[in-house]
Amino acid sequence: MASFTFDPLTPAGFLRRSAAAFPGRVAVVDGSRWWTYREFAGRCDALRGALAGLGVGPGDRVAALCVNSHVMLEMHHAVPAHGAVLVPVNVRLAPDEMAYVIEHSGARVLVATAEFAGPARELAGRTGVRLVEPDEYESLLAAAHRVDPPEIDERQLLAINYTSGTTGRPKGVMYHHRGAFLQAVAMCYHARLGPDARYLWTLPMFHCDGWSFTWAVTAAGGTHVCLRRVDVDEIWQRLTAGGITHLSAAPTVLTMIAEAGAAVPLPEGRTVHVDTGGAQPSPTLLARLDRLGLRVTHLYGLTETFGPIAINEWQGDWDAEPDEVRARLRARQGIGNIIASPLRVVDPDGRDVLADGETIGEIAVRGNDVMLGYYRDEAATEAVTVDGRWLLTGDLAVMHPDGYVEIRDRRKDIIISGGENIASVEVEQALDSHPDVVESAVVGRPDPRWGEVPVAYVHLRAGVAGDPADLAAHLRARLAGFKVPRSFVFTELPKTSTGKVQKNVLRARSDQGQ
Amino acid sequence: MASFTFDPLTPAGFLRRSAAAFPGRVAVVDGSRWWTYREFAGRCDALRGALAGLGVGPGDRVAALCVNSHVMLEMHHAVPAHGAVLVPVNVRLAPDEMAYVIEHSGARVLVATAEFAGPARELAGRTGVRLVEPDEYESLLAAAHRVDPPEIDERQLLAINYTSGTTGRPKGVMYHHRGAFLQAVAMCYHARLGPDARYLWTLPMFHCDGWSFTWAVTAAGGTHVCLRRVDVDEIWQRLTAGGITHLSAAPTVLTMIAEAGAAVPLPEGRTVHVDTGGAQPSPTLLARLDRLGLRVTHLYGLTETFGPIAINEWQGDWDAEPDEVRARLRARQGIGNIIASPLRVVDPDGRDVLADGETIGEIAVRGNDVMLGYYRDEAATEAVTVDGRWLLTGDLAVMHPDGYVEIRDRRKDIIISGGENIASVEVEQALDSHPDVVESAVVGRPDPRWGEVPVAYVHLRAGVAGDPADLAAHLRARLAGFKVPRSFVFTELPKTSTGKVQKNVLRARSDQGQ
Fold first, then answer.
1. How does pLDDT run across A24-57, given as a tens digit for each residue?
2. pLDDT over 80 at A292, yes or no
3. Which helix (H) or strand (E) holds A21?
4. Of A112, A221, B45, B426, whose CA is between 20 and 30 Å from B13?
């Protein structure tokens, strides 16, 4: 094997390439400030030097408590290029949870943006981590000495992304360089990124490293447009006047965007590529976004799979289908992305279920965009491993005859009523198709006769007085009778820090008859 | 490291994924026959079984003497999936050269399509290779037993692609699975492939495995449309009526397409993505294709780099430039592709030249889409290695301030006249901008006073009587006087089997005053 073959696959290489190939293009916009690729690369080199000056070496963990910002992007490129390990902290965690993440990861340094100066100081006081204060950051970069980047082993630890932990302690999902590189290239391909992309950061960068788009947009030589907080008026201003071409967001955020007062259809001929995932977007929401010029691609993944391991790859001949069929086709999670190993749907014995669109099994994954395991938690890693070589996702799904996967429910969200399985997602989608409904969540309430019965929590459109009888009639026209909720509660839905509906909270409320 | 992380990177995985994800989509069209992805995968499985039945095991070489056809595509997927090594034979080689390739590679089996039944029999008689006769192929597949695919090491030998060998014996360029996988994904990204792509096979598949598009189109789930021979009428019929979205071709073939009687602009709103490379497309050709609706992307690579290691990545704000500037921008070779390590342009001491768009150096490459080396030829491998870890390409180029590389000439094609370097490409581009000229080649003729003087070989448009004085005046308005050829020969240009102009033939003719 000649010496010129093979270089390690690492997302740290993307910025080097884009700085060489697109030195004068705008890499990062953050408020009124912006940096070209040459400047962005220079700042990341300086940050490497600054980290070295703080005693951070290869393998050391560096935590970030940051909004979507140039700082967070610089961390995503400089920390891996330094051979260190990035620990993005979910900014919506409680102080105890943040302290747990810092301590469990053994982070040596914590970098915070101004928005979190207070909590970061408290955290540093509690854990002893070395805090880089927001107003210290620029002077550290300015004073940094130049250090050579270390050799990277493509299988080495790149980042530890803690799960939101709806049950128990957060688990530290270990990312590797090879996986992040491949996943980023896959995102470039599927999202049709390019040097003219202007990517609006509505998705939190701390969430699966922004589904690898922190690296993908850089790989493509596109422009990162940071959004320090999710403000629908600013989003619409950027969409209509800011030349945005791409964004990603969970369905709950897309609902906010679609329902905003400022929402107006984009001018004829202009569309924005939107990637969504993390939960199932309702057909109603998809149709609404379509009319606004936001073309949604539905992705599926977990923190454990670098974000989107699957994509609802749209096939042109589906455009000719009636609206309802198209909406159903688009609500499916789809197929493994171009670098992913094929997804399976397996029965409890680990065998593939029939690809009939009906038989429910659990999604199992493996391959290059699957985590190394949970940090310092072999038991948890073993608990999700089946058959020696597959990771069980906890998502119950069917395999359609055309090879596309469709989730029926999270394993823990399925409702069993009178021996029948009720997929909460199916009931929610039927509810969401009612014109009065913004979004809904259906959970099981213990019932002496049926085991469980479904209960619906419904967020109504403003100014609408909910009518349970009307909703029930709407559902009876669409679903089997046993799937129709026994009661309807009109309320806003409680959500986790990453925008997922907290069904555990709703289940607790339903137990108490609320 | 958990057991579910990492799978080997291999192009053999693409067909498995597409057969699972797009089972009913058309994978291959060959004349009036077509196969879905499910059928294509089934046939490749059968071919694996047939090869095993012929005694072919992992590591064994299997040669193909095939036109662009379903057979050649099946070979590209089945042979690597079997762990064996594909040897695509250039169908335009002389019998002696073919025999050399078969013997040097040690091929065990040779598969031929009907077009080459005669030469293949002769070859088998001469070398003893086991020939699969064209009319034997289907029955072998039908009778094949099912065999399990072996484990693949991503760094193992995938194919041996012999160079066309303008000087000396062909050299066997060793491809590996990892490189082919990554290069194919890069092609998917840069060419914007997708399941709706219909890729017209004008480029020979035996040439760098069709620049990895044999795998890329499969990875995207697109449709391979085979063209058994380059027939411009059929190409235009396919372009206008066949829904073709993509093709690749060397500039000489593009010239034929652009100059064809059947050439008509595509309907408003429809364009075809065209990738070109192998030689520099003239700005005149690019402008002509643009008017026809063929949007050309200029790629650069070598057999040694799995085809296109660089791409002239087009930046949207260049659209606003005047025609001439745009043509000049598009004639550049560009930047490393998204999975490539950055290209360098180095001086004889191996140092980067100034990125000033003027200082000439040689392009040096390394990385995951660079060959393992030359098969059984360590001396040749060493001869192209510099600095312990770079491969010297033999292409002389400048680095522009924006990071884009532009070739000035092949090292061996540069003309040195009176101590001045004349880049033959520059003179050819100026000649090609004359309305009478189809294409041209400029070589150096030995001269007692100047060392060398440039001589132009010019292929004129049909019905035009060439006027040397007029051409010389055209050039003097555009180039320094010493670059203007001393004589003009009106002739068609001799070409290699891959469509490259044979400058060595022209040099020999110029030596003899022809």
1. 999 999 999 999 999 999 999 999 999 999 999 9
2. yes
3. helix A12-21
4. A221
**Does the beta carbon of B152 lie under 8 angstroms from any beta carbon of chain A?**
no
Over chain B (514 residues), the average pLDDT of each successive run of 10 is 87 95 96 97 98 97 98 98 97 90 98 97 97 97 96 97 75 98 98 97 96 98 96 94 92 91 91 89 86 94 96 92 86 95 92 95 97 95 90 95 91 81 86 92 89 92 91 90 91 81 87 76
pLDDT on residue B447: 86
- CA B147 from centre of chain: 33
Q: How far apart are CA B142 and CA B49, in angstroms?
A: 10
Query: Is A121 part of the contact surface with chain B (CB cutoff 8 Å)?
Result: no
Q: Report d(CA B164, CA B114) in Å as an integer.
A: 23
**Closest among A312, A286, A300, A308 to A402, alpha carbons compared:** A312
Task: Output helix, strand, coil percentages for chain B, rounded to the nearest 5.
Answer: 35, 25, 40
Strand, helix or coil for residue A306: coil
Chain B residues close to A4, C-beta within 8 Å: 365-367, 370, 385, 389-391
Single-letter residue type at A430: A
Can you say how many angstroms the Cα of residue B269 is from the centroid of all Cα atoms in its chain? 28
Residues of A in Cβ contact (< 8 Å) with B316: 195-196
Across A320-324, A459-463, B152-156, least confident range: A320-324
Structure token digits, residue A227: 């959004």
Residue B452, number of CB atoms within 10 A of its CB? 18
Q: Which amino acid is at A194?
A: G
Answer yes or no: are the C-beta atoms of A97 and A165 closer than 8 Å. yes
All structural domains of chain B = 43-175 (3.40.50.980), 230-410 (3.40.50.12780), 414-511 (3.30.300.30)
User: Is B179's Cβ below 8 Å from some Cβ in A?
Assistant: yes
CB-hemisphere CA count at 13 Å for B260? 21
Helices marked H in A55-109? 70-81, 95-105
Which of A338, A363, A387, A389 to probe the B interface (max B CBs under 10 A)?
Answer: A338
Distances A358 to A353, A361, B400 between C-alpha atoms, Å = 9, 9, 58
Q: Does the beta carbon of A16 lie under 8 angstroms from any beta carbon of chain B?
A: yes
Cα–Cα distance for residue pair A10/A184, rounded to 1 Å: 10
A259 CA to centre of own chain: 21
Give the pairing of strands A109-112 and A130-132.
parallel
- SS3 letters for A329-373? HHCCCEEECCCCCCCEEECCCCCECCCCCCCCEEEEECECCCCCC
Tell me what percent of the residues of chain A surpass a pLDDT of 90: 76
CA A471 to chain centre: 31
Q: What is the pLDDT of residues A61-71, one digit of tens each?
A: 999 999 999 99
